[in-house]
Amino acid sequence: MKSDRRSLATGVGRTAIAWLTYPSALIGSVWLGGGLLDGGLSPAGTVACVGAAFLVLCFALERVSPETPRWDWSRLELRTDALHALLTNTIPSALFRLLFYSGLVGLADAFDQRLGSSLWPDGAPRLVQLALALLLAEAAAYAIHRGLHRSRLWPLHAVHHSSRRFYFLLAARKHPIQAFVTYGGRLSVLWVVGVPADVIALYTCLAAAASYVQHANLHLRTGVLGWVFATPELHRLHHGREPSAANCNFGDVLIVYDVLFGTRRTPPPAEALHDGLGLPDEIAVDHHYRGHLALPFVWPASAPAADTAGGASSDSS
Ligand SMILES: [Zn+2]
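# zinc ion complex -> structure
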């Protein structure tokens, strides 16, 4: 009787984690970020705190409700992805900011002076500004991500796709050149239209939390949210081992651009992609940090192109 009650409680807890984690991450990251900003923390400090909080949360939830025990992380990849979190996710973005921030913000000021008013509706409620910033940044993110899958830049982005498992730190795995391009593209469109720093910080908090949950080894269900957001279920298809199958669901936070351009793809309801993640078998990846840095430059000429199938299949439902 006692064990029945315990298994019922476990089942209820697992169901609650499955359905509540993703929406809670979306709402919680904005709520926590807003609270820290209002409390006087700097935008950079706010982003760091919220990112760290969701990293720890995903780590803890993976211990409680993993999607697949076989996807537990390896020590080598964990060490390498920790370096990605510390180096790849900080140095390229700092470099991009150093090189381009003043020029792009100066351009925004010049627009405003020419118009005689601010291009950006900075008097609107912060959540409205966040929604607008999200739409703008995600348009850039979609275009860049799709471009990374359909061009010679694929070996750079393949570093992120090189994991055979989902786990809490995979979101941090990127080649530094890709990080420079992705960070720069998303933030440039926001800087050039004059989005305030606190709104950019909130967007970055939201994107970081969504990405950590999206790549975690968690048993999650998101239902109709998958028509607006790039949910973990949709993103898992994007990490399919066959490049032709992975040409879908390019959205980072939102899936609306995939819907708009016909690249949203959903699995049949009974299908869960438990295996088949990562890169094709013929591509051997050295999972030391130096191996990830070198991967685009030792990319085998015989490897299948990322856009083998010429785009996503259109079996969206
Ligand atoms: Zn991708």
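# post-check
The two ends are 43 Å apart (CA to CA).
The chain has one domain: 13-297.
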